[in-house]
């Protein structure tokens, strides 16, 4: 499992939790947004460990809902870890409920389509289940999930 991870900050013990990876296309119809918010609140209330890149605006919104809870969260970066951690991550890191991981070393400083794909592959590989908020037909998420033997749920 940890063969994919090059850098991490936080409690690596979170990797043994049952994890749901959250994936969502960058462009999402308004009809899917509330489903994603409701799902995030349900996961928070159930104490479910969610792993995501939390990169797109919708994913950031999902993270906002999750950070209000006490459940574990794994943030997967599509670049190396910055030296300075965002202020909103300090409290959950100190509480041992946030783990930041990346398949890249610190020399990778920009997110690209390729680094996002590699990050998403890592998240799928270490997840127990993949939840897709919305996927563009024929898009990157569709391609990543083809021929994967993992439980996948579409909102």
List the helices and strands and how they pair.
Blueprint: E1 7-10, E2 19-23, H1 30-46, E3 49-52, H2 57-67, E4 73-76, H3 87-94, E5 98-102, H4 113-126, E6 129-132, H5 140-145, E7 151-154
Parallel strand pairs: 2-3, 2-6, 3-4, 4-5, 6-7
Antiparallel strand pairs: 1-5
Helix pairs in contact: 1-2
Architecture overview:
The protein has 155 residues and is an alpha/beta fold. It has one domain: Rossmann fold. 36% of the residues lie in helices and 19% in strands. It contains 5 helices and 7 strands, in the order E-E-H-E-H-E-H-E-H-E-H-E. Strands 1-5-4-3-2-6-7 form a 7-stranded mixed beta sheet, sandwiched between helices. Helix 1 packs parallel to helix 2. The longest helix is centred in the N-terminal third of the chain and has 17 residues. The protein starts with 6 loop residues before the first strand and ends with a strand.
């Amino acid at each position: 499992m940890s063969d994919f991870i090059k850098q991490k900050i936080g409690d690596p013990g979170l990797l043994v939790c049952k994890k749901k990876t959250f994936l969502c296309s960058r462009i999402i119809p308004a009809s899917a947004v509330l489903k994603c918010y409701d799902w995030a609140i349900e996961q928070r209330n159930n104490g479910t460990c969610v792993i995501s890149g939390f990169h797109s605006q919708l994913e950031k919104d999902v993270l906002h809902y999750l950070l209000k809870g006490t459940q574990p969260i794994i943030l997967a970066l599509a670049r190396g870890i910055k030296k300075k951690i965002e202020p909103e991550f300090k409290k959950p890191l100190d509480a041992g409920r946030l783990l930041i991981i990346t398949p890249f070393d610190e020399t990778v400083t920009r997110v690209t389509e390729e680094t996002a794909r590699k990050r998403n592959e890592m998240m799928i590989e270490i997840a127990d289940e993949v939840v897709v908020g919305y996927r563009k037909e024929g898009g990157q998420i569709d391609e990543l999930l083809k021929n994967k033997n993992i439980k996948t749920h579409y909102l």
